[in-house]
Every structure is written in C-alpha cells, then in structure tokens.
Amino acid sequence: MRFIIRDDPAAVGEYVGNYISRRINEFNPTPEKKFVLGLPTGSSPIPTYKHLIKLVKEGKLSFKNVITFNMDEYVGLPRDHPESYHTFMFTQFFSHIDIPPSQVNLLDGTVEDLIGECNAYEQKIKDAGGIDLFLAGIGEDGHVAFNEPGSSLVSRTRIKTLAYDTILANSRFFGNDLKKVPHMALTVGVATVLDAREVVVVVTGQRKSLALSKSIEEGINHLTTLSALQMHPWALIVADEDATAELRVKTVKYFKSIERVQDEVETMHRELKKKKVNGVNPNIIEQVPSME
Amino acid sequence: MPTANSLVCFTNCKLALEDGSIVQRDLWIDEEKGIIVDAQKTFFEDGRRPDTIIDVGGSIISPGLIDVQINGAYGFDFSLFPNEDAKAYDDGLRMIAERIVETGVTSLLPTIITQQKELYSKLLPLLGPAMHPNSATLLGWHAEGPFLQPEKRGAHLPGFLLKAPKGVATFEEVYGAEALSKPSVQLAKRGNITFPGVRLITAAPEIEGVLPAMEELVKRGVVYSIGHSSASSEIARKGVLAGARLITHLFNAMPQLHHRDPSIIGLLGAPPLIVADDVPLFSNDPAAIIEQFDGADPTLHGAEALSEAPSPSQSPPLSPTRPEDKPISSISARIGKRERTLDGQGVAKKLAPKKSYAKPFYGIIVDGCHSHPHSVRLAYTAHPEGCILITDAMPMLDPHLTDGLHEWRDGRRVVKEGVKLYIEGTNTLAGSVVTLDTCVRNFVQFTGCTLGQALKCATYNPAACLGIENHKGTLRPGADADLVLLDAAGNVKGTWVAGKKVWPVEK
Description:
Chain B: This is Unplaced genomic scaffold SPHSTscaffold_142, whole genome shotgun sequence. Chain A is α/β, with parallel strands linked by helices. In chain A, 35% of the residues lie in helices and 15% in strands.
C-alpha cells in the first residue's frame, strides 16, 4: 500500500486528479480499448473532480474513451432527487467533462428488481473488462462505498441497509428528518472494489482520522471495511494532514519516506520506457511495482 | 462523422433564476425544439449530451425580457391603422418584433391606447399571438381603454372614452365578441405558440359596468388591469375582488397616495391575500383562510411546452390568484383536508370554500422621470413580488434615435433628450422612449436590488401575471429557450428566441 500525505483537501484533490489523469493518459484509451474507472460520491472526492474538470477544460485529459462505474445509489430515491447520487455525479462531474452518457454506469435504486439490478451491474463490470482504477472515499466508521461495519469483506454488489450512523450523518441532506433519509442502498461490494486493478482512496478531515488509523494501522476487520485494502496488491491512500491526526508518528514518517523513493523509481522507469519504445517489448515495463 | 445533435450547452455562465438569484450553472437547450431541457434527464435518460458548447465567458443568462405595455417602436404605432391596410399593419408588427430583440425583449404585448370604438374590432383580430423567424414573440394584445376615467385620461382622447352600461355586452360591442370569447384550442396552437395568447384590458373599476364585465371576462382568460382611474381604496379593493391581477403604470393616471385613502397605490400595502369582507384579514385561525380560487378551465392552458419534466404549477391565465403563492399552498397544506378543520374544542366544522385574491402585480415605468427613483423604491419595498418593469414606450422608441428635434404627429415636433421626450417648446413629456434593458439597469440603481432581482421584475413577474410562466420568463426545463445574455452591469450582449440567436445577427 502506498500512502501520500498532502497539506489540505485541495492539494489532495490536485494530487489525485493528476494521478488519475496520468493513469488514463498512459493507458492511452481508444474506442476499442477503453479505460474503466470506478467512482465515489461524497464530499472527499469533490476537489479531485474539480481538478479533473480543470484538466479536461485545459485539454490535458479526455473521458471520450473512459467508462465509469459508480459505487452506490439510494433505493427508492428518484434519480433526479437533489440528493440522489445521479444528481451528485451529474452536477459535480459528468456535466463538466466530455464523457459520452452511454459510458456512464450507475446503479438504479428505483427499479422493481433490485437484486437483478445488482447482478447485472457486476456482469456489466466484467463485460467492460474489469475496473482499471477504483477511486474511493471513506466513511467516519471506515466504510467503503455503502459497505457498513460488519459487511462481508468478500461481498459483491447487493442491497444494503444503511447503518444508523450513516442515516444520522446523511439526515443533514434531507432537512434533518430521519424519516426522509433512505434506509437502503445498492452498493458495490468490498470484493468488487478489491477486484479493481488499482484502488485509490481519498481521506480528508480530522473526522476521518480514526477510521484511517483503524484501516491501515490495525488488522483486517469487517467493522472497518476499508481495512480489506491491506489485501490489495496496488492500493494508494491520499490523505490531508488533518486526517493523519490519529496515526502514529512512525507510520506517517515511514510512508513519507516511501513517497520519495517511489517518485524516484517511477521517474527512472518512465525514462527507461521511453528508451525502450523502439525496443523488443515495451510492455515488459507496463507498471512500476509498488515499493511496499 | 455523424451530424451534431441539436442540443446546445451554454457554459461558463451565471443563470438568472426565477427567484431572483443568480447562480453559476450550465444551461442546456434544444435548438431545434426551441426549448430549455432538463440537462440531467437528457444525460441519463436520453443518453445524450450537447455537441455544441457555447462558452459565454462568465456572462449572465436571463430569460428574455417581457414588455407587457408598449405602444409602438421604431416609428410604428400599434394604435394606428392607416388606410385600414392589414398587410402594412402586419409588416409593422413584424418589423418591431424583429428589431426589439436588440433591447433584450423576446416577448411583447402590443398595447392599443383609447381609439374610436370602431377600430378595436378591426385591430384586435390582427393581434393574435404570433411568432415570426428571428423575432420576439407577439403575445397577444393589451387594450388600454376606452373604459377609463375621463379625469385620469392622461394622453387618451376624452371623446373616445366610454362607459359600459350593459357590462360584458358593451365590452363585446367595442372589442368584438370574437376577441373576448374563450380561446379555442386552435388559437392556442397558432404559430407554434403553446399558450392561448394574452388578452389584457386596462379599465377603471369605478366606470359603470366595468366590474361586472371584468368578473365575467377574467373567467374567459382575460387579464384585468386597474388603471387610468380615480378609484378610492374601497373601489380598488373591489377591483381586485373582481379579478384584477395588475395595476397599469403605477403612480401615473391615478390618485396620489393619501394616507387616509391610499387608493389604488394602497393595494401595494394590502396583506398578501385580499379576501372577502366577512373574513378577518390577519387571523391565526386557518379556518378563516380562504380556499384558492378554482375556476380555471384546463383547456385554456394550451398545450404544455414539450416538457421533459413534469410541469410545475402554472397560474391559470384567468385566475385572479396565483396558486404558486406560498401563503396559499402552505396554508392549504396546514389545513390538509380542504373543507374541514378542527376548532379549539376538537370539533370538526365545515368551511365554505371562498375566494382569495393575491395582491395584484403592478407595472412601473423605470425611466427615472415617469416615476421618481424614490417612488420606484417605495413601491418595490412594499411589494417586491408584484413588480413588473414596463416601458410604456411611444412609437419614437428606438435606441438608435439621436437626441434633438424629431417630427412627431400632426406636424408637431418633439425634442429628445436621453430617455426624455418633450413636445417642442414645452416641458410636457410626450411619453416614454426608454428601452426595457435600460429600465432593468435603472431599477438596480434606484432600488439597490441585485441585477437578478431586477431581471425577475422584467421576466418571471410579467410571465406569472399573464399566466404563462411555464413557457416564458423562466429557465425551467420545457420553457421556451428565449434568452438574453448580459454582462455584469446588465448590458445586453446577445438575444436568443426559441433557441436561435437573433441578436447580434452573426455575419
């Protein structure tokens, strides 16, 4: 696991935005070979989306050949409800970039056959060739997507009852009326996220610091579902200083030293790859192995 | 390459919304259908996004301006019918509709001032709602007269003023029964216009026969405006109870504000709902609040715009109340069951459904001379939701007209000084020559309101008064894509009608 610390949420957004942009551009997606990106909602990824939008407007990045899969959606909330994740994704991201609507996938919580919807979603991901990079956030209780504490760590896309904590936290978006907050959601499973070839997690703010500590400083535990990330071969967490408040000094120092070395190695390999363009097989250095 | 779709996205813009706010947001329209679309629905449900993106560089996009009182422009007078030449008259209408868009106006209501009564039945049929290419929409007609108070006649000719001893029958005699009949669906479809057309009558409530006639005519979809009147406060209130939704050029051609009898102007100080005599005005008992007027004939609304979203409520053109008014809806919600409520003892008692009437809108000329800036601010402070900016412009209206001497009528000449027009050799004002976009900028200056709030007074408020706010004066999905592009100071940079750019004309 790689762990990057930046000063504030804006700097985190810029780092993650540049990181995703680099991944997509290095992948060099085409209509035949599209890049598949998993996306979250919530406040943490907003600076990242802002930065990606900026890159698109500057012509440095395009989503023309990118397929997206979103993590989750409420059940029973109309898709054009101001608090639906459809609305969030459209207003925060999709309306500002150049992605064709046909390449955008979100779970539909308004259908009659919810189980069928979930199974079809898993199949759709498979048909797209799996997810190349899954961007994620984290809940205050360490949940990833709507995989609340106690969720199976090998779970797949399914219907999920929201934890009381999450309902309370989300009630602020529903006029502080608990009855108006949907109590169910469709969500990708922990295993669906871990299946992605790469997972990038954004963690910002002091309120997330305990969850971050439990996710990376303790063992794998279904009460902190993000801790399952420890089993992923190619994971990256990017946090701001506030979110590190509960981490041990030793942890922070260690990961900061990794970042430096990682940068050096990545630069070295990129140079090497350039030299190899006319070589026998450029694919042998497709990806820099993690220093972890 | 497949051809580009007809969707257009305006980006890097600030939208002037119908609540008077200005928000940074993109706007999607369908150029072919000429309407505003629900962007999110288009994206997720139709799977489409605009191929054309217009970066407006941070400008403001407002619904196109609506002028409900304009007597003519660019030298053409709506009230004159020389040689009874219908073709020439229609050409004049088209000419104004085509040129007025440079002032940000995308809809106008040609206004006929008092004429000899024979003329109405000839002119009104020529003034149906109409849409011509690259032109502002002609909404219908505004008849200012002849049922006016002679002592408040202003520039109207006293010899042509009439009473209505036979009520509606007199009105039909003067305007023509056809012009006052209930609009048919055919009329609603005319010229791709999706509403039945606007018919606005300014009349003085104290003139014999006017109120009984108006009570009947509002049921047929006519909008009643109180004006050119010396009505007392009580008569003005009766005018509202008869269905008046508008006051014509506030402060002008009406009694001055007197604190003991504030007359027509005093309506601005009335409570939000004007109710019948037997109901206390400010009551805590919801039972005392009146049921909303429900006389609307749904066939009169015309076809809905090619709506992609369920249409929000729209005031029926003939209803004196505005159903979207918050006081009514919140009260209805509180009452729950319409006709039942509980008194203090928990006993259900029956309520007779009664009519309530929203405070009327008022048109106000914001050229700085027809109403003093302080008067404008006074009116706006008293009743911001009812404010409608009008030009009441004379045929001399032409933003390109230079200051100095100009030929007028009957060999008389006028002197133009900025927005003021004097009869030569006098200091008598010869009417207004202010453009509506200038009124918007003046209004910001006079009242200290935001540009968004001022635009609301020239867009959403007039549309709501006329009952066409699902189609005009709004950026709601499904509404006509009539747009005006403004800089931060409110100067018009471009105008679109039904999704087509009409000004400045691209070379």
